[in-house]
Design brief:
Blueprint (H helix, E strand, L loop, with lengths): L2 H21 L2 H47 L11 H6 L13 H24 L3 H34 L16 H7 L29
Length: 215
């Protein structure tokens, strides 16, 4: 393509752009601007809702951690270890509004919160005796085991609800005749000493104590 042809092509392109611009009215331009403003406001509102949900989850996690510690340290002189500043940190209302922060600032704030929470627990554990630390760790392990076992039981009962009730009276309590996926659940060490009903209707599991009874 010669220089004259390239110049002619540029003139055609400029003319086409001018025609497109001249065909747009002021009302259309204003409508486009309004649409963009609305989209930006909608994105900001969605981000605020997501951030509010993240703050709520973090707040509940902190409250649950504090509750577990206090339960483990009842009648202990370290029951009130959390100072006033840490208590204020639990309330999401004092956090900086999301619209005043960008993504990098939010990530930095989340990292600071994690580090602050880690240091707070380090301070608390440093003031505990070895016996108290053992109680706290045992409580955490017990809670994780309960959550894991409850999830397995939920899956079993949901599976039974979808396939219909099974007749467990025919095997005379012989666990070797139980299907392998149920045998695995029933031979878990944490289930020893528990009596599982022969036929269980679909229920929502609230507490393991509701499912296990002394033999």
């Amino acid at each position: 393509m010669t220089e004259a042809q390239r110049e002619q092509e540029r003139e055609k392109t400029c003319l086409r752009y001018k025609q497109q611009i001249s065909s747009i009215t002021e009302e259309q331009i204003e409508h486009l601007h309004a649409l963009r403003r609305e989209q930006r406001a909608q994105r900001l509102e969605e981000e605020k809702l997501r951030e509010r949900e993240r703050r709520r989850v973090r707040y509940m996690d902190r409250k649950m951690s504090e509750k577990c510690l206090k339960k483990a340290l009842q009648c202990s002189p370290v029951d009130q270890l959390v100072d006033h500043g840490a208590q204020e940190e639990l309330h999401p209302s004092i956090e900086e509004p999301i619209e005043h922060m960008n993504a990098s600032q939010r990530r930095g704030r989340d990292e600071q919160e994690r580090e602050s929470r880690r240091l707070r627990y380090k301070r608390q554990e440093a003031m505990m005796t070895s016996e108290e630390r053992g109680r706290v760790h045992a409580l955490r392990r017990e809670r994780r085991a309960q959550m894991s076992m409850a999830e397995r039981l939920r899956e079993r009962y949901h599976r039974q609800a979808s396939t219909g009730p099974t007749d467990r009276g025919s095997n005379n309590g012989n666990i070797d005749e139980v299907p392998s996926e149920e045998k695995q659940d029933m031979t878990v060490e944490s289930l020893q000493g528990c009596v599982v009903p022969s036929q269980v209707a679909p229920i929502r599991i609230l507490d393991l104590k509701d499912l296990c009874a002394p033999p």
